[in-house]
Write a structure and sequence with these properties.
heterodimer, A: about 425 residues, alpha/beta, FAD/NAD(P)-binding domain, Enolase-like, domain 1, five-stranded parallel sheet, 10 helices, about 30% strand, B: Ubiquitin-like (UB roll), 3 helices, 5 strands
């Protein structure tokens, strides 16, 4: 029955570059939405596509198997007729010829192309950054390499106190390493959260023996055959057997740029995930877009966005309506304590602490012009779902009610006028 | 171990019979059989988009819900004290052969 309703154009191939969360979600979503045409998933890595969040958490634990959780079972790809070409990269996009050219010399025509190339870890650009022992964490191979060197007693210097740096700091401390985190700003996770949350997590890490150095500008890695010291601008030298750089990511936009697609800190896409070429889509970490929620021009590095954009792309390719935008959300787990955030805070938002951080469970509410813009939940998730709903309707919040944890967040919101 | 048979009632009330394989969580069985379960966190009890209702007798055979799971569920649409689960937290067990699972409303 269904086949008769599929328009002729659906017989044509969709080529997806990249098999991370977003690329796989596009492939699966196309099938769920009834796409009958060929689906070609081009994967730079050889093994079955896998979950990335555990790479900096569960995978690094002592005794944890060296296996990453697959996004879908290998059999799923076969069952769904998703052809996965693994271990090769796309050299270029031939837009006039509507084809991609692969590193193995192959050429594949597309009806629609989806770029889901993700992002890569920003590399340190100081002398000595290429020494053995200087690592980054992005792929399963990176994680396994890191895991091998996080041995008890190892001196681990982590550059950057963002999610990745802190998750690795927690894993390393739990494995008996001596951990020093070097951060240029004056607190941890300064890009993504407010001072009360930063201070709370600094404490959590401090209690586990992690040492922080703030205002640290790394100028060099020193060592003869491998990394031995990290040097900062003030001349301090920190001994290190292992150096992990967690200093952000760079969108893998080069092939899109070379093909003349509109890019700047990501590939520009519209609400449907379309690039400046209407036959080419992009999705996930590699995209730059205008938020349908607050009009912000942004690139988001999170699973939620990868999944949400993938859904929009699959919907648009199959000619179906896209879902309402989802409030972006993020999570990290450090020393078993979860920080989960709904919405994207701005540094100048008003900050309301809800609960008592010393009790290990609290939230921080962010208001922009009196309206809820984001909520951090620490050590609990009670406020998370109400927060997403209230942010979606830009609810006005009574600050004194929001500061009182016994009152639900929903009850701290002024009722929308009818 | 052989597959479990599961009957799923979707959000429109239609029923679907599917095979739940031993190496899948319930969420994975739903998702991989094209049911509309977003599972945007990949099964880490973070997002609550895989919320389902189980029959009370079945629910009671399962272990306690974690604090994270419970906090997400309590705020979820249609929460049932003796029925709501995040399907990503329900592991395969042969006791669950033949169960009926109802997808909770979104939101």
């Amino acid at each position: 029955m269904r086949e008769q309703q599929i328009p002729q154009e659906n017989q044509k191939p969709v080529v997806i570059i990249g098999a991370g969360h977003s690329g796989v979600a596009v492939a699966a979503g196309l099938r769920t939405r009834g796409w009958q045409g060929r689906i070609l998933l081009l994967d730079a890595e050889k093994e079955t596509p896998y979950e990335r969040p555990p790479l900096s958490k569960e995978l690094l634990k002592a005794g944890a198997p060296d296996e990453s959780t697959p996004l879908r079972k290998e059999k799923f790809f076969q069952d769904k007729g998703i052809e996965r070409l693994a271990g090769l990269t796309v050299e270029s996009i031939d837009r006039p010829g509507k084809a991609v050219l692969l590193s193995d010399g192959g050429r594949h025509g597309y009806h629609r192309l989806v770029i889901a190339t993700g992002s890569r870890a920003r590399a340190l650009s100081v002398p000595g950054a290429n020494l053995p022992g200087v690592l980054a964490l992005r792929t399963r191979d990176d994680a396994l390499e890191l895991k091998r060197v996080l041995v008890p007693g190892a001196q681990v210097a982590i550059i950057g106190a963002g999610y990745i740096g802190l998750e690795v700091a927690a894993a390393a401390a739990a494995r008996g390493c001596k951990v020093t985190v070097l951060e240029f700003q004056d607190r941890v996770m300064s890009r993504v959260t407010s001072a009360p949350v930063s201070r709370f997590f600094e404490n959590v890490h401090g209690q586990k023996g992690v040492r922080f150095v703030f205002g640290a500008a790394v100028t060099a890695i020193e060592g003869t055959d491998r990394a031995e010291h990290v040097v900062t601008a003030d001349g301090a030298r920190f001994p290190a057997d292992v150096v992990l750089a967690g200093i952000g990511v760079i969108p893998n936009q080069e092939i899109a740029e070379a093909a003349g697609l509109h890019c700047k800190d990501g590939i520009f896409v519209d609400d449907d995930g379309r690039t400046s070429d209407p036959e080419i889509y992009a999705t996930g970490d590699v995209t730059h877009f205008t938020s349908r929620i607050d009009g912000q021009s942004q690139r988001l590095e999170c699973i939620q966005n990868a999944m949400s954009q993938a859904d929009s792309v699959a919907a648009h390719i199959t000619g179906q309506p896209t879902s309402d935008p989802e409030i972006p959300w993020f999570w990290t787990v450090q020393h078993g304590v979860r920080l989960q955030t709904a919405g994207v805070r701005h540094p100048d938002d008003d900050v309301i602490v809800r609960g008592t951080p010393s009790e290990g469970k609290f939230s921080v509410v962010y208001l922009r012009n009196g309206r809820l813009s984001a909520v951090d939940t620490v050590g609990g998730l009670s406020d998370f779902r109400p927060a997403k709903k209230l942010i979606a309707r830009a609810a006005e919040i009574d600050p004194s009610l929001a500061a009182e944890p016994s009152i639900s967040l929903t009850d701290a919101a002024l009722q929308p006028s009818l | 171990m052989s597959n479990n048979k599961v009957t799923v009632v979707d959000r429109e009330g239609a029923t679907h019979d599917l095979e739940w394989e031993p190496d899948q969580s319930l969420m994975e069985a739903l998702r991989d059989n094209d049911l509309p379960v977003l599972a945007s966190c990949g099964g880490t009890a973070s997002c609550a988009t895989c919320h389902v209702f189980l029959e009370k007798e079945v629910f009671e055979t399962l272990g306690e819900r974690s604090e994270d799971e419970l906090e997400l569920l309590v705020e979820a649409e249609g929460y049932q004290e003796c029925g709501s689960r995040l399907s990503c937290q329900v592991d395969f067990s042969q006791n669950l052969d033949g169960v009926t699972v109802t997808l909770a409303p979104e939101g």
